[in-house]
Amino acid sequence: QVQLVESGGGLVQAGGSLRLSCAASGRTFSNYAMGWFRQAPGKEREFVATITGSGDARYYADSVKARFTISRDNAKNTDTLYLQMNRLKAKDKAIYYCAAQAVAVMGELGSSYDYWGQGTQVTVTT
Q1: In terms of Cα–Cα distance, which of 23, 20, 24 is closest to 9?
Q2: Residue 89 has what pLDDT?
Q3: How far is CA 93 from CA 3, 40, 109, in A?
Q4: 102 with 112: CB under 8 angstroms?
């Protein structure tokens, strides 16, 4: 089992920045590819970004490319996933979830992820 706990969400003005964190525990963190997903009110969950287990490759949804950066710290006693969000837009408002996939390769399909956090709310005001 892998436990995931997100933090860092909040209220920000359009054009501002937030950094989300996802603390992982339970298994060897680097064995898992990680992803960020989001769900806006009334909409389906959508892929945001993914990173390999080692952190050597990343992939982004077109809607966030060049604005968001996914990263991870695999150091012992850290085991944390991050999402740096810059130049936020009103359409970025959503609940953001981190997820762990029990293989080290990247994935953008939510159905391929095995563990999910509870989510953290991001609200962008204009």
Answers
A1: 20
A2: 97
A3: 25, 6, 21
A4: no
Place of tokens 């029990």: 102
* Cα→Cα distances 109→13, 88, 92, Å: 30, 24, 19
Percent helix, percent strand, percent coil in the chain, to nearest 5? 5, 50, 45
Q: What is the pLDDT of residues 74-101, one digit of tens each?
A: 987 789 999 999 999 999 999 999 999 9
Instruction: Please give the span between the terminal C-alpha atoms of the chain, in angstroms, as a whole number.
Output: 40
* 117 — pLDDT class (breaks 50, 70, 90): very high
Closest to 16 (Cα-Cα) out of 103, 126, 108, 113: 126
26 φ/ψ angles, rounded to the nearest 5 degrees: 115, -40
The tokens of 31 are what?
């064995």
